[in-house]
Amino acid sequence: MIPPVTSMANIAGIDNISGLGSPSQVTSTGPVSPEFGNLLEAAIDRVELSHNTAETAVNQFVSGEENEIHSTVMAVQRAELDFELALQVKNKVVSAYQEIMRMQI
Fold it and tell me: In the 8-state DSSP scheme, what is residue 68?
């Protein structure tokens, strides 16, 4: 298990590194972008909505309310693709995190 980093002040010699400013000195001149958490939440909501839509389409087809199978299959395929995309993004994020954790400081 990797111990959490609590404070950078405890690392000897970090004060002698030049060129590093404090986070309060960093200014952004570009447009304000939405926070990562909001983007992630929206993406998860989209995957969940797609899954619910596919489930509703299947239930309507099985109960006989919907006669066209291609719309049901399209909804299921869309849900599968959305889930697969979310899974691949999650795998890339975890892989990037593991790569960063393996870096020597």
Answer: -
